[in-house]
Design a protein that fits this description.
Helix content: 40-55%
Radius of gyration: 24 Å
Order of helices and strands: HHHHHHHHHHHHEEHHHHEHEHE
Distance between the termini: 53 Å
Number of strands: 5
């Protein structure tokens, strides 16, 4: 029956995106800001010589210790497609295929999770719609392709909740390592769910056969070694450790957070106009449930309160709920926002400094685990406690309400993606620039600054002519590398640097 969710995922992807991103040779829609960063990281990487670690990307971010990991280019796919580069067309992008896979896998794992309630296929299909059209996932189509991979959260939940626990350690190692070479935020969420699963499995074992501390250590050490070692190896291969230490630029904790009203804030996605004021950085905490999702949760709460039934075995264990609550607290941070109102909860200076240097600065995203757990719990309540045609009609009404409410956001997203595909990026195409590209091997921008306005034009030009460049955008970089990158400029105008041209980005 997996053909049903696969078909749903395919149809949803084509409907939401207009299908424009699925063609590998179509790259115009990737020529904008964060999307340009992801595509250009791959475009430079595919033509770079093989190095150790495999993810090193010296041409993109010349002198800045760049790797494919920090251009947000989905390192997993970049390293898989790089050996095939000689046979791939120019240009070529895999981000559309990734999005298609994300929609399909999102539907498949949602279908599996709802199967815990042993519901009819039609009811499971209706419930799966809430996951496939989850606004937090769809919202990432505008700029963060790697973060569309919410299916990894659902896959982790499935591993945590599935009835069979065969090869649990192996599957966790595979999933955690895969998340590591897709995106750091997804990795952090998957690890959190894994830890909840470890705690729950230990509780179950203690109830069946109590173990001494030494026995507990012997039981879990192999799994920890397997998961941690596998993850560290793939992280090193992808170039994750090329940027590390106190020189790593990372800030934003307490700014890129979630507002307490985020689940009810449509922020341009709601046809009914649900919108609340929020602080500037709280867009990273976009977690709109949708009107149908809110009605679903409300109906589940009413069902639990009014339709008392014999005590059932909990499908969602308490350690998973504890992790969900902790991640929600991390998403809100100590700068608590309630609409336009803001409260700062003081922390010791040492704590604040530690948190401010976290690699996970956009903590508003960490609510995604809680978001999906709430949806799953609400749907499981309805699937378990309602029966027959009444349940189907109820789910149909909730899905219809959700589609009606999200229509504005979905239409806007599709229009934006189609408009980007039809646009023509600004290019440096003239006899002068063609001659420059043939003569010089390195293009440096003045002044050196990441994400300068117009950096995309210089970077696309450098990529077309197989030049190295520091006109780039990176999600992380080593601040200590900046002085080293600047030094060659000091003597370049005296004619001591050969093969390098300097340009000032227009913007």
């Amino acid at each position: 029956m997996l053909a049903v969710p696969v078909l749903l995922g395919l149809m949803a992807c084509i409907w939401v995106s207009g299908g424009v991103m699925l063609w590998p040779g179509q790259v115009n829609w990737l020529a904008h800001s964060d999307l340009a960063q992801s595509y250009l990281g791959w475009a430079f990487y595919r033509h770079a010589p093989w190095t150790w670690p495999l993810g090193a990307n010296p041409a993109y971010g010349a002198g800045l210790h760049s790797s494919i990991y920090y251009s947000d280019s989905i390192p997993l796919l970049a390293m898989l497609f790089k050996p095939l580069s000689a046979w791939l067309p120019e240009p070529f992008q895999y981000f559309g295929l990734w999005v298609l896979a994300c929609f399909v896998l999102q539907a498949v794992f949602a279908w599996r999770l709802l199967g815990l309630a042993q519901a009819r296929p039609l009811d499971k299909l209706l419930g799966t719609v809430f996951f496939v059209l989850a606004p937090p996932m769809l919202n990432r189509l505008g700029g963060h392709m790697a973060l569309v991979g919410h299916w990894m959260i659902l896959a982790a939940l499935w591993l945590c909740l599935r009835p069979s626990r065969r090869r649990q350690s192996t599957w966790w190692a595979v999933l955690v390592a895969t998340a590591m070479v897709v995106h750091a935020y997804l990795f952090a969420m998957v690890v959190a769910i894994w830890l909840a699963d470890v705690v729950q499995r230990q509780r179950n074992m203690q109830q069946a056969e109590p173990l001494r501390p030494s026995g507990v250590l012997r039981r879990w050490l192999p799994e920890w070694v397997l998961v941690v070692s596998t993850t560290c190896v793939v992280a090193w291969l992808a170039g994750f450790f090329m940027v590390s230490g106190h020189g790593m630029q990372a800030n934003g904790f307490g700014y890129y957070k979630m507002n307490l009203l985020a689940p009810f804030n449509g922020d341009g996605w709601s046809w009914f106009g649900l919108r609340f004021a929020e602080a500037p950085g709280e867009y990273e905490g976009f977690n709109y449930l949708g009107l149908g999702g809110m009605a679903l949760v409300a109906m589940a709460l009413l069902t639990v309160a009014w339709r008392r039934e014999p005590r059932r075995q909990r499908l969602i264990p308490s350690p998973l709920w504890i992790v969900a609550v902790l991640l929600a607290v991390l998403a809100v941070t100590c700068n608590v926002g309630f609409g336009s109102l803001q409260w700062h909860m003081p922390l010791p200076r040492r704590w604040w400094e530690k948190l401010s240097h976290l690699s996970l600065q956009s903590t508003g995203r960490m609510f995604w685990v809680t978001y999906y757990l709430i949806l799953l719990a609400a749907l499981l309540v309805l699937l378990q406690r309602w029966r027959g045609p009444v349940r189907t009609v109820l789910l149909l009404a909730l899905v219809a309400l959700q589609l009606m409410d999200l229509h504005v956001g979905l239409s806007s997203l599709r229009t934006t993606l189609l408009a980007r595909a039809r646009s023509t990026p600004v290019s440096l195409n003239s006899p002068f620039w063609n001659a420059v590209g043939e003569r010089y091997r390195t293009l440096r921008q003045l002044p050196l600054a990441l994400m300068s306005p117009g950096w995309e034009t210089l970077a696309f030009y450098a990529q077309e002519h197989r030049m190295r460049t520091d006109a780039v955008q990176l999600v992380r970089h080593r601040l200590a590398a900046f002085p080293v990158a600047v030094q060659p400029r000091e003597g370049s105008f005296a004619g001591r640097q050969v093969g390098c041209v300097h340009a000032v980005p227009a913007g």
